[in-house]
Design a protein that fits this description.
By secondary structure, the protein is of the alpha+beta class. It has six helices and twelve strands. It folds into two domains: 36 residues, no CATH class; 168 residues, SH3 type barrels (Roll), CATH 2.30.30.600.
Length: 255
């Protein structure tokens, strides 16, 4: 049994259906399934008849059309990057491109003659995170020489939150600021976090800092601000300036 989504009756009174069919509007739902109104206790406003126009169809086969759209997106990224050349401090475009490589095995070459291999965990406004065995390695863009990955690796081009549950989508629609603000990974996705901000989620964790002078400093992450990183070592509190850091590791995450 079907009902009309316009007049909500089994016997349609809005006269939009085919005379020989009981399905009288564009969308049909079972009478046994109640509309949950996107999780709201309030009913949706009445729908008014609106003309619908189908999107133009492409004469290209689906595979060729997908390939063409990917090429267009790459060209658009290149044009946007060229347009931002006069502002070298704007690293947001680089961050968004690196986020497409999440979960892909990569190899990073760092300025202090170090190579780091692992899965790309995430990227921020000024850093990239590589996940190795039980560790997160953070590298600032200014210390990064190159990134290598398999060009044939399958990248995830699906829109974010495409498969998110209904409650999460509802919270993001009606309580965006409060919902996103409590989740650093979402703040980083929508706005971009600096490494100094991102490290605040790892206070109290074991950390190893490799300086550009090839010194290793181990301890417990105590604080992070725009000038330096503070860690508690066996010799007491030590402060390391950001300008002297080559890369850092958050250690023993499997423990």
């Amino acid at each position: 049994m079907t009902i009309c989504l316009i007049c909500h009756k089994e016997s349609c009174t809005c006269k939009r259906g085919h005379p020989k069919s009981r399905i009288c509007c564009v969308e049909v739902q079972s009478a046994k399934v109640q509309n949950d109104h996107f999780g709201s206790p309030f009913p949706c406003p009445e729908q008014f008849p609106t003309k619908r126009f189908s999107s133009p169809n492409s004469p290209l086969p689906p595979e060729l059309l997908d390939e063409l759209q990917r090429c267009i997106e790459v060209a658009n990224d290149l044009l946007r990057s060229l347009g931002n050349q006069r502002n070298p401090n704007n690293m947001r475009r680089l961050q968004l491109q690196l986020l497409q490589l999440q979960g892909i095995p990569i190899k990073a070459t760092v300025d202090c003659q170090k190579k780091v291999s692992g899965l790309l965990g995430t990227a921020g406004r000024d850093f990239v995170q590589i996940n190795t065995h039980g560790q997160f390695v953070f590298i600032l863009y200014e210390q990064l020489i190159s990134l290598e990955w398999d060009q044939d690796a399958k990248l995830d081009h699906e829109p974010e939150f495409l498969k998110t549950d209904k409650e999460t989508r509802r919270q993001m629609v009606f309580n965006f600021g409060e919902f996103v603000g409590k989740r650093p990974e979402l703040v980083n996705l929508f706005f971009g976090l600096t490494l100094q901000q991102y490290l605040m989620d790892f206070l109290g964790k074991k950390i190893l800092i490799k300086t550009i002078d090839h010194y290793n400093i181990k301890g417990i992450l105590s604080n992070s601000d725009g000038v330096r990183v503070q860690i508690m070592t066996q010799n007491g509190l030590q402060e390391i300036d950001w300008g002297t850091i080559c890369y850092m590791e958050i250690m023993d995450l499997r423990a």
